[in-house]
Design a protein that fits this description.
Radius of gyration: 21 Å
Bound molecules: 1,4-dihydronicotinamide adenine dinucleotide, 1,3-dihydroxyacetonephosphate
Distance between the termini: 24 Å
Helix content: 40-55%
Shape: globular
Strand content: 5-15%
Number of helices: 17
Number of strands: 8
Structural class: alpha/beta
Strand order of the largest sheet: 3-2-1-4-5-6-7-8
């Protein structure tokens, strides 16, 4: 073998052989994730709400509404019957809209294996309770933390369905369970890292949607790269402050589930949050934007509960506040960029005064180096 040969990433095919897993939800992400799991060697069944969609996936190997042009793997099974979908599954991945998850959990409860682990792929918070999805799972099904996981990262579905390589973070309070989830979800084009920071992993996915809305809005207005760079940078600061105040590890927000996802969602024209923001920036109302969107843009529903939590925690989120004002029609989209701080804000340091000392940077660097292997 030549020393220059490119290493081939083989995924976990043999380790996952015969392993039954279920994906609940057959939209763009549920279907793409089912492909990842199948390509990782798992025995996958996807549950679709509509029988005709299950039939199309099972028979034609297509999901034309959500993943046009994508051929799905042969082994993937699909059904609209929950009992069939969940039979024998120890890992259950949830890919439904955040506002329906609670009801979906009640629907699947009778068919769940008592040892199964539930993994949220959802990037939203419940509007009525302000709960993260792992909290909704614990609240609805009364499961212990070691049976609840979350996966998040820079994961634009259509790119991954085309097998363009990327990574994600699988997190669970129990490290061994996080590793088990990551093993099931590691395909040749999808590298899954492991974390025990469920709060940071989930909040990264929730909060980047709000910043992507802001990016879409200023894009729609016609502002350029300086404005967007300022929003992304200050947006990450808002995301990190909010997440740390919620119990997350700051390092998670500088990883794939934070910065990584923020970059992907803010840059991609395929992002639904970015697209929704752009329509609003072009002058469409929130109602008209919802009508034009064929898919879930979680950010729009997450803005009010995130701001409610921020106020409770004493966190100021100028960008998210301004997204809310644009959405509610109390601020013109063109004012979002120039007002990166609230009007009564006094000039202040860019970094918090208790920013990490050189020693803390070194420890952070060592930690990142240790996790990059
Ligand atoms: N599409 C993407 O690139 C990614 C999406 N996500 C997250 O995954 C979650 C699901 O999003 P997508 O699959 O993209 O949305 P989507 O809009 O493509 O599909 C939503 C799916 O949910 C189903 N659905 C709607 N109402 C339902 C109900 N009451 N009960 C059960 N199912 C229902 C729809 O029929 C559809 O199959 C969201 O939280 C999203 O933020 C996460 C990573 C990537
Ligand atoms: O979460 C995503 C990418 O990681 C998908 O973003 P959108 O929901 O904005 O399409």
């Amino acid at each position: 073998m030549s020393t220059n040969s490119i290493p081939v990433v083989r995924g976990n095919g043999s380790r996952n052989r015969g392993r039954k897993v279920t994906v609940v939800g057959a939209g763009s992400w549920g279907t793409t994730f089912a492909k990842i799991l199948t390509d990782a060697g798992c025995d996958v069944t996807i549950w679709a709400r509509r029988p005709e969609q299950a039939h199309e996936i099972q028979v034609a190997r297509r999901n034309t509404q959500y993943l046009p042009g994508i051929n799905l793997p042969k082994g993937l099974k699909a059904t609209s019957d929950l009992a069939t979908a969940l039979r024998g599954a120890r890992l259950v991945f949830l890919a439904v809209p955040s506002q329906t998850l609670r009801q979906n959990l009640l629907d699947i409860e009778p068919y769940l294996d008592p040892r199964s682990v539930l993994v949220s792929l959802v990037k939203g918070v419940e509007r009525t309770t302000t709960m993260r999805m792992s909290e909704v799972i614990a609240d609805t099904l009364d499961l212990p933390p070691e049976r609840i996981g979350a996966i998040s990262g820079p994961n634009i579905a259509l790119e991954i369905a085309k097998e363009q390589p990327t990574g994600a973070v699988a997190s669970c309070a129990d490290f061994a369970v996080a590793q088990d989830i990551a093993t099931a979800a590691s395909a040749p084009y999808f590298r899954t890292y492991v974390s025990t920071d469920v709060i940071g992993t989930e909040l990264g996915g929730v909060l980047k949607n709000l910043i992507a809305l802001a990016i879409g809005i200023v894009d729609g207005v016609g502002y350029g790269e300086n404005t967007k760079a300022a929003i992304i940078t200050r947006g990450l600061a808002e995301m990190t402050e909010f997440s740390v105040a919620s119990g997350a590890d700051a390092a998670t927000l500088s990883g794939l589930a934070g910065l990584g996802d923020l970059i992907a969602t803010c840059q991609s024209p395929l992002s639904r949050n970015n697209t929704a923001g752009r329509l609003i920036g072009q002058g469409y109302s929130q109602e008209e934007t919802r009508e034009q969107m064929q898919q879930v843009a979680e950010g729009i529903t997450s803005v009010p509960p995130v701001l409610e939590l921020a106020r409770e925690r004493g966190i100021v989120m100028p960008i998210v506040e301004q997204v809310q004002m644009v959405l509610s029609g109390t601020m013109a989209p063109a004012h979002l960029g120039p007002h990166l701080a609230t009007e009564d804000d006094v000039p202040r340091p860019e970094q918090p005064l208790d920013a990490p000392t050189p020693g803390r940077w070194r420890r952070l660097f060592d930690r990142l180096k240790g996790s990059s292997a």
